[in-house]
Amino acid sequence: MGLTDAKRRANNKYIAANMTVLGCKMRKDKADRFKMACKLAGTTPNAVFTKAVNAFLGEKEEAWD
């Protein structure tokens, strides 16, 4: 069973208030290879990007302290 209308509205409200989309440009051939590598590794591009951002911020925050 899918989401109820109320749950969908609540999800959309949360996303609008708390999430953003980051983008980057890269060559299509490299992007396709990256997507396939993620799939073969059992992960998603979003998960890889999120992990990289968290690692980067963690390193930078240590320097900022």
Largest sheet: none
The average pLDDT is 92
Total strand count, please? 0
Distance between the termini: 48 Å
Q: What class would the helix/strand composition place it in?
A: mainly alpha
- What are the low-pLDDT stretches, counting only 5+ consecutive residues below 50? none
Chart the SSEs and their pairings.
Elements: H1 5-18, H2 28-41, H3 45-64
List keywords for this structure.
65 residues; 74% helix; mainly alpha
Give an overview in words.
- With 65 residues, the protein is mainly alpha-helical.
- 74% of the residues lie in helices and 0% in strands.
- It has three helices and no strands.
- The chain has helices spanning 5-18, 28-41, 45-64.
In short:
The chain is mainly alpha-helical and 65 residues long. The chain contains three helices and no strands.
